[in-house]
């Protein structure tokens, strides 16, 4: 019932002008029918509003005045409606433009996020380490640079996208949880999981380099660290990163659809979350 009333209110809000015109057109017919009914009531019971006694000339005068007023109103309405539609079109264009600019910024940020999980640094710095002092120092710098980049990207991710949101604005929304929210949560959770694993892997790389440099590592520990680093790198590059890219693509496609909705209707059409789990599973 609540959804039905929401649809009715939305329909009336959108088409109130059409309903007003329709009422003005049929109002005289309603008036005539009503007066006929009151005439019958007057004849039977002797009370009520009645049109009895009005002649044809009086009815014609009524219709002439009413139609003249209606035609004048129609002219004013057409002029106002044209101006209103033009203003609404410009507003929708401005909204869509602003939304598109924010979308481009988000696309750039998400691209940086995906590229920040750079496995080449690990392979070049650890798996191909030659052991000389110069290359060991280069490895340390590369790992430090990778850690700084991932932290800088986290700041961009949290400030320049809507994904790292607390979703408080969704609490009173009729579509909560919506498809947009489910996709954003999927991206956010996967990103933080990847970031945690990536930073842990970089810590293991630091440990590997330090022990390798000081010759404090035995063959067994060397092997264990190598396996941990390799497993983490493979998990990120072969499993988690492809999923993150596909989730981001779903998110961007959804935002592009919202941009078209703003341009066409002036508002975003959110979709109730019904099939997002199945859709995200298909994208894995």
Describe this structure in words.
- The chain is mainly alpha-helical.
- The chain has two domains: 2-89, no CATH class; 91-282, Four Helix Bundle (Hemerythrin (Met), subunit A) (Up-down Bundle).
- Helix content is 81%, strand content 0%.
- It has seven helices and no strands.
- It has helices at residues 2-45, 56-116, 120-127, 133-160, 179-214, 219-265, 276-282.
- The longest helix has 61 residues, at 56-116.
- It is rod-shaped and about 115 Å long.
- It starts with a helix and ends with a helix.
**What separation lies between the terminal Cα atoms?**
38 Å
- Return the CATH architecture of the largest domain: Up-down Bundle
Total tally of structural domains: 2
Residues in β-strands, percent: under 5%
Mean pLDDT: 79
How helical, in percent, are the residues? Answer: over 70%
Number of β-strand runs: 0
CATH topology assignment of the largest domain: Four Helix Bundle (Hemerythrin (Met), subunit A)
Specify the CATH class of the largest domain.
Answer: Mainly Alpha
Radius of gyration: 34 Å
Class by SSE composition:
mainly alpha
Number of helices: 7
Write the H/E string, N to C: HHHHHHH
């Amino acid at each position: 019932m609540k959804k039905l009333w929401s649809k009715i209110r939305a329909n009336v809000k959108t088409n109130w002008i059409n309903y007003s015109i329709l009422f003005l057109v049929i109002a005289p017919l309603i008036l005539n029918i009503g007066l006929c009914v009151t005439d019958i009531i007057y004849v039977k019971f002797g009370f009520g509003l009645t049109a009895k006694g009005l002649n044809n000339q009086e009815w014609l005068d009524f219709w002439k005045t009413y139609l003249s007023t209606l035609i004048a109103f129609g002219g004013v309405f057409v002029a106002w409606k044209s101006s209103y539609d033009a203003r609404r079109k410009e507003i929708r264009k401005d909204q869509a433009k602003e939304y598109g600019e924010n979308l481009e910024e988000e696309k750039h940020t998400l691209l940086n996020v995906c590229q920040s999980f750079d496995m080449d640094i690990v392979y070049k710095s650890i798996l191909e380490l030659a052991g000389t002092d110069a290359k060991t120092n280069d490895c340390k710098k590369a790992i430090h640079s990778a850690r700084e980049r991932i932290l800088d990207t986290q700041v961009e991710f949290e400030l320049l996208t809507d994904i790292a949101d607390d979703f408080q604005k969704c609490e009173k929304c009729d579509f909560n949880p919506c498809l947009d929210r489910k996709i954003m949560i999927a991206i956010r959770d996967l990103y933080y999981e990847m970031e945690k694993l990536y930073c842990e892997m970089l810590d293991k790389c630091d440990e590997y380099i330090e022990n390798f440099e000081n010759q404090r590592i035995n063959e067994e520990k060397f092997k264990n660290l190598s396996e941990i680093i390799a497993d983490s790198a493979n998990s990120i590059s072969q499993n988690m990163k492809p999923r993150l890219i596909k989730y981001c693509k779903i998110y961007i496609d959804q935002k592009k659809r919202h941009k078209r909705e703003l341009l066409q209707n002036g508002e975003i059409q959110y979709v109730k979350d019904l099939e997002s789990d199945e859709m995200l599973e298909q994208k894995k």
